Structures are given as structure tokens and as C-alpha cells.
């Protein structure tokens, strides 16, 4: 069945309903609002002067010392350099434990010891050597 243009405008058929948000009115207009309605809450609650971005991203000279340090540490270059320094530190630490381990007498000599076991054994061995010297 074909409808005349007048009947189509009065129809409840979905294809005849207006599609632009302004003509919808009411709650539907709010739901289907424009993209500008999707502004962040910080900007919407600002003082209206457009300074809310400055509040979120203050000038570097306005940052506290801690905030400057935090931002500097957040860079990929800093993280990479820090990881390299940490790797070198851990390797030196493990090398020192390996050297200490070689100086300690154990049976069997190649027995694997944890770091805490190495330290405890070193303390006992130093105490023993002191006792031997004192006698």
C-alpha cells in the first residue's frame, strides 16, 4: 500500500521519523547529542576561561620537584637506561657472590649455595679463622 506524503508524515512507521537530533527533542535529543557534548568532566567544570587544560598540564616551571622527577622517569629513554644500570648492578652483585663462594670451604666443593647460605657460611668461616688466630 502506498501512502501519500501527508499520510507518510503522520505515520508511526520508523522510516518516516525524523533522523536529526534537533528535531527529535526531549530525552532523545540528549542521548543523540553532538560530539561536543562529550567533553571531559574537567573541562565542563572549569571556570569557563578555557584554562582547564592548563590545570591538567601545568607549565613545567610550575611543577614540584617530585612531579618533575616522576615525569623524567616516565620516559622510555630513562627506563631503558635505568634497566641497563640495574642489569650491570645485579651482574656485579652476582659476581661478588661467586668470588666469595670460591673462598669458602664446603663439601662437595661445587655444591650450589643460595646467597643467604653463602653469607652465613662466610660469617661462620670468618669466626672460625678468628678463633684459630686467637689460640
UniProtKB/TrEMBL annotation:
* GO function terms (MF aspect): DNA-binding transcription activator activity, RNA polymerase II-specific; protein dimerization activity; RNA polymerase II cis-regulatory region sequence-specific DNA binding; RNA polymerase II-specific DNA-binding transcription factor binding; transcription coactivator binding
Fetch the InterPro entries from UniProt: bHLH_dom, HLH_DNA-bd_sf, TAL-like
Basic residues biased stretches: 68-80
GO cellular component, alphabetical, reads:
chromatin
| GO biological process per UniProt | apoptotic process; cell migration in hindbrain; hypothalamus gonadotrophin-releasing hormone neuron development; male gonad development; male mating behavior; ovulation cycle; peripheral nervous system development
Provide the taxonomic classification: Eukaryota, Metazoa, Chordata, Craniata, Vertebrata
- A Pfam family annotated for this chain is HLH
In what residue span(s) does the BHLH domain sit?
77-129
What gene is it encoded by?
Answer: NHLH2
Region annotation (Disordered) ranges: 1-80
Keywords on record? Developmental protein, Differentiation, DNA-binding, Nucleus, Transcription, Transcription regulation
PANTHER family from the entry?
HELIX-LOOP-HELIX PROTEIN 2, T-CELL ACUTE LYMPHOCYTIC LEUKEMIA/STEM CELL LEUKEMIA-RELATED
Q: What is this protein called?
A: Helix-loop-helix protein 2
> Which SMART domains does this chain map to?
HLH
Entry keyword annotation includes Nucleus? yes
